[in-house]
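S1.2 Input.
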Amino acid sequence: EVYVAGYYAAGDGGGGFFRGFSTPSIDNGGSIITTGYGVSAATGWYRELQSPINILCWGAYRNATNAATTRQSIQNAINYAGSNGGGFVYVPGGVYLIDTTLTITNNAITLGGDNLRVSIIRTSSSSITMLSITGIDTAVVKNITFQRTSTGTNYGVSITNSANVTFEYVSSDNNGSGYYLNNTGTQFYNCRAYRD
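S1.3 Output.
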């Protein structure tokens, strides 16, 4: 067993304990580490993951930089939770820049931050939907702001062909439409859609 102090640098929040393995596995950027993302190798390291699934452990930058890497890191954490029957994907305080849509397509995913004022997912694109929830039965999004740096023409959050989706303390800022709903059973608690 080995302890790594950070994902990119010591103290960046992405560290953790790892155990070696000797069976072929593919690097997924967070729970399995080999010689490179997407690379299959006979040896490498398994992260000892605990709940919640922290996006910093998957390589997200929380300083509003590296949009493509950050979006892929958040998506990898969501996908990991989905492939394991669901889970809490944790967005610690910070500003997470994304360049394309994040998607939730598996049941029992909770995407949650510390507080909607400090856990911010941001884009500079005026045309992408920031979060798409599609074809699921049960999800929760809480304590997060979806923010554009300029007024957008698309949705902050889109929910289609889904049921039982709950939003708690979520803000959709500077989006053409805050929330698009084509589903049943969506519940909003203390949420807002804000536009400059």
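S1.4 Remarks. The chain has a mean pLDDT of 92.
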